[in-house]
Specification:
This protein has one domain (2-295): Metallo-beta-lactamase, Chain A (4-Layer Sandwich). The chain is 18% helix and 22% strand. The chain contains eight helices and 13 strands. Strands 6-7-8-9-10-11-12 form a seven-stranded mixed sheet. Strands 5-4-3-2-1-13 form a six-stranded mixed sheet. The longest helix has 10 residues, at 117-126. It is globular and about 50 Å long. The protein starts with a strand and ends with a strand. The structure holds zinc ion. Zinc ion binds at residues 15, 19, 21, 23-24, 265.
Length: 296
């Protein structure tokens, strides 16, 4: 299985257009590499590729990745579809870049499919796509020899969903376990996680590589208010630090290669010279650049 990290930044990209914090300024000055919005691509056979989320930077990401170029015919592409983990804008708006591509399959959990209904109807007018339920019993098989199961990891509802409309407390956030039947390699893709759980811990412990939500360094770095499915309690996102953060929690059962992605511009892990990055490296956590490739 080949995995390409097409983008590794959180929703604003790195740097966001409207921030002049120290890290963002360092990026504009050329002292740190810039990053596009989080999104990845995976293949089992090198010919059939599947996107893991669809970022707003998708056109540039696809253009920059030789394996995803169109060909042989003038309208042929190796892209077969998309697996969505959630309905956040930085994970779904790239679907608009794909409009008109024939026969794509876009897997998503039921609450995500429901909230995207208007966009789905619009996209299907360019070219009809399939929108399978990612949580269907038994998982699903992707062209190229990949077997996938989806796993609920949170109920955070996107901020654009009207608060007055009661929403189901369903699986708004899912992680994917992707297994290559030929190599036996297992990837866990979890770039949007509400909180650490025994189920996620089991999933990660049995993988070869885990792409983990590294959005917020500390719990108090979470900026925008979010709400749960009940519309009541505010829920957050998995922080990097703390006993159940994305560094310490998976380290309790080491084995899988752990890579943080979807980094927010406030996250000191963006700076390779930071003490935070040094500590994370000591714990075995990696931070890679856009375009990095993994072989599993
Ligand atoms: Zn900033």
């Amino acid at each position: 299985m080949r995995v390409v990290l097409l983008g590794t930044a959180a929703g604003g990209g790195f740097p966001p257009w409207n921030c002049a914090c120290a890290l963002c300024t360092a990026t504009r000055d050329g002292r740190l590499p810039s990053r596009t919005r989080e999104c990845a691509a995976v293949t089992g056979n090198g010919r059939d590729w599947w996107l893991l989320n669809a970022s707003p930077d998708l056109r540039a990401q696809l253009t920059a990745t030789p394996a995803l170029r169109p060909g042989r015919g003038p309208r042929d592409t190796p892209l077969r579809g998309v697996l969505l983990t959630d309905a956040e804008p930085d994970h779904v708006t790239g679907l608009a870049e794909l409009r008109g591509a024939a026969g794509l399959k876009v897997y998503a959990a039921p609450p995500v499919r429901d909230v995207l209904a208007p966009a789905r109807a619009a996209l299907d007018r360019y070219a009809p796509w399939e929108w399978p339920d990612s949580l269907a019993e038994g998982g699903f098989v992707l062209a190229g020899g990949l077997v996938v199961t989806a796993h609920p990891v949170g109920v955070k509802i996107p901020a654009y969903v009207p608060a007055q409309a009661p929403q189901p407390a369903g699986p708004w956030m899912t992680a994917y376990r992707v297994e290559d039947l030929a190599s036996g390699g297992v990837l866990v893709y979890a770039p949007c996680v509400a909180a650490w759980s025994p189920a996620l811990e089991n999933l990660c412990a049995q993988a070869d590589c885990v792409l983990l939500d590294g959005t917020f360094f500390a719990a108090d770095a979470m900026g925008t208010a979010v709400r749960s499915g009940s519309g009541q309690a505010a829920v957050g996102q998995l922080p990097v630090t703390g006993p159940d953060g994305s560094v310490a929690a998976p380290a309790r059962r080491p084995g899988a290669r752990r890579i943080h992605t979807r980094l927010d511009h406030t996250n000191p892990l963006l700076d390779p010279a930071s003490p935070a990055r040094e500590r994370a490296a000591e714990e075995g956590v990696e931070v890679l650049l856009d375009g990095a490739e993994l072989l599993l």
